[in-house]
């Protein structure tokens, strides 16, 4: 599939929100941009599957989720790195902005779902994704950007300028025959 320029895509948010620094440092064969409404076809779920279990909901349901994220403006920033020769996604990540009542109505950026295709790991794509998401978070006015990770990924996030703080708590819902949907 030939490379599709941003101008031909329906993007989750304006590409200008992505700081130039992260984009400029990428190899010219790669392109960093917001998630697009047709990225189901560019292997978005396949890249995410290096991170955890991914159940393919089908393209229509995927697009409905894309539209639900976009319906909350200035909140969800999902980005992708595309291999231009193949027009395929090779890295993904998201930051979402939580608006608070404390800290003078401050905001916090939450980084989620960072994944780099196995064939492309170790080439600084993860670093570029984190740099771009942190820039989006800070440019949105967030006073901090936070994330959860496994012990084995701590060194990666330290290389990205993050430091270990506090602990994560989790409670998984019990198995249910039918999961309620918002
Ligand atoms: C973790 C992950 C996102 C890192 O992305 P990547 O593109 O492979 O990493 P980068 O090439 O950008 O690494 C940047 C630096 O971190 C280091 N690094 C990366 N992963 C590391 C690890 N697990 N342990 C130690 N150092 C690591 C790299 O060596 C590099 O160091 P350098 O600048 O000194 O060369 C990627 O390997 C991945 O998708 N893993 C599977 C899914 C996952 O665990 N996601 C994170 C969920 S919290």
TrEMBL record:
Enzyme Commission number: 2.3.1.4
Any one GO molecular function term: glucosamine 6-phosphate N-acetyltransferase activity
Subcellular localization(s) per the UniProt record: Endomembrane system; Endoplasmic reticulum membrane
Keyword match Transferase: yes
N-terminal signal peptide: none
Membrane association type: Peripheral membrane protein
Keyword Endoplasmic reticulum part of the UniProt annotation: yes
Chain ranges of the N-acetyltransferase domain: 30-182
Pathway: Nucleotide-sugar biosynthesis; UDP-N-acetyl-alpha-D-glucosamine biosynthesis; N-acetyl-alpha-D-glucosamine 1-phosphate from alpha-D-glucosamine 6-phosphate (route I): step 1/2
InterPro entries from the UniProt entry: Acyl_CoA_acyltransferase, GNAT_dom, GNPNAT1-like
This protein's UniProt keywords: Acyltransferase, Endoplasmic reticulum, Membrane, Transferase
Record field: catalytic activity: D-glucosamine 6-phosphate + acetyl-CoA = N-acetyl-D-glucosamine 6-phosphate + CoA + H(+)
Record's GO cellular component terms: endoplasmic reticulum membrane
A single BP term in Gene Ontology: UDP-N-acetylglucosamine biosynthetic process
Assembly and oligomerization: Homodimer.
Family per similarity comment: Belongs to the acetyltransferase family. GNA1 subfamily.
The protein's name in its UniProt record: Glucosamine 6-phosphate N-acetyltransferase
Protein species of origin: Daedalea quercina L-15889
């Amino acid at each position: 599939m030939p490379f599709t320029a941003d101008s031909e895509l329906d993007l989750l948010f304006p590409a200008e929100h992505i700081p130039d620094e992260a984009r400029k440092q990428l190899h010219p064969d790669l392109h960093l941009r917001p998630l697009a409404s047709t990225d189901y076809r560019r292997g978005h779920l396949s890249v995410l599957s290096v991170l955890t279990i991914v159940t393919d909901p089908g393209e229509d349901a995927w697009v409905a989720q894309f539209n639900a994220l976009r319906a909350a403006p200035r909140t969800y920033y999902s980005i992708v790195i595309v291999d231009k020769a193949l027009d395929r996604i090779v890295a993904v990540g998201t930051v979402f902005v939580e608006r608070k009542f404390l800290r003078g109505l401050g905001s916090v950026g939450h980084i989620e779902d960072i994944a780099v295709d196995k064939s492309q790991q170790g080439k600084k794509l993860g670093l570029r994704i984190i740099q771009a998401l942190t820039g989006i978070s800070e440019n949105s006015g967030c006073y901090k950007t936070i994330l959860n990770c496994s012990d084995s990924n701590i060194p990666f996030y330290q290389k990205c300028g993050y430091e270990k703080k506090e602990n994560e708590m989790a409670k998984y819902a019990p198995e249910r025959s039918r999961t309620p949907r918002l």
